[in-house]
Amino acid sequence: MFFHPMDFLIIIAFLLSLWAQFRVKGTFNRWSDVQTMSGLTGYQAARMMLDRNGLHDVPVEPVPGSLTDHYDPIHRVVRLSEPVYYENSISAVSVACHEVGHAIQHSVHYPMLVVRHKIFPVVRFASGIAPFLLIAGFLFQATGLIGLGILFFTCAVGFQLVTLPVEFNASSRAREIMVSEGFITNEEERGVAKVLNAAALTYVAAALISLLELIKYIMIFTQNRD
């Protein structure tokens, strides 16, 4: 109940997640000090990448904070944190183009992104209720509640797993276009790869933690039924 053999792996994955978050901030700061030879700011790179892919109607807006960059598929807006929006650096251009990669995915109906959008309403409900069902199930030794909690938690884990190819594909699109369109040089691509790979690792670590927790709950559920 209070300790399970899987907890050891979960702790390791959690430490990996903390390290990934530390690394993404460190990598972003490191390459924020390196200006691109093209002289483009994050906003300019994002705007050019959108226009060259026919997305003239998708605006690029600055938002407060650091690493708050995202693509809003509902309003079809690329929102960049102020350091990314205004600065000319490897980090700024990398993050900006990555978010535009999501906008391009949206426009071409990238299958995994379509799946992600369709399951989001279900996942939002499932991820909110799953912890309560699992806690109640373990507290009252109610296998039915545990089983239902596992089902809902599986939806949340599935969402995180679907997110991985979406993020990697957006980065891949960004790197290819950034080089082909001259936003960065071939030599600068090394820095871009470091920034994008560090960010991707945070998604991998989060998905790993959730997957290990799911396996733990399934093992406990199976043992309780025996």
Characterization of this structure:
With 226 residues, the chain is mainly alpha-helical. Helices cover 73% and strands 5% of the residues. The protein is built from seven helices and three strands; from the N terminus they run ααβββααααα. A three-stranded mixed beta sheet has the order 1-3-2. Strand 2 (70-72) and strand 3 (77-81) form a beta hairpin. Helix 2 runs parallel beside helix 4, helix 4 (90-108) crosses helix 6 (143-180) and helix 6 (143-180) runs antiparallel to helix 7.
| Sheet with most strands | 3 strands, mixed
Helical element count? 7
Terminal residue distance: 16 Å
> What is the radius of gyration computed over CA atoms, rounded to a whole number of angstroms?
20 Å
Poorly predicted runs: none
Shape summary: elongated
Helix vs. strand class: mainly alpha
Q: Strand-and-helix sequence, N→C?
A: HHEEEHHHHH
Instruction: State the share of residues found in helices, binned by percent.
Output: over 70%
How would you sum up this structure in a few lines?
It contains seven helices and three strands. It has 226 residues and is mainly alpha-helical. Helix 1 packs antiparallel against helix 7, helix 4 packs across helix 7 and helix 6 packs antiparallel against helix 7.
Provide key terms for this protein.
226 residues; mainly alpha; three-stranded mixed β-sheet; elongated
How are the elements arranged and paired?
Blueprint: H1 6-32, H2 42-51, E1 60-63, E2 70-72, E3 77-81, H3 82-86, H4 90-108, H5 111-139, H6 143-180, H7 189-225
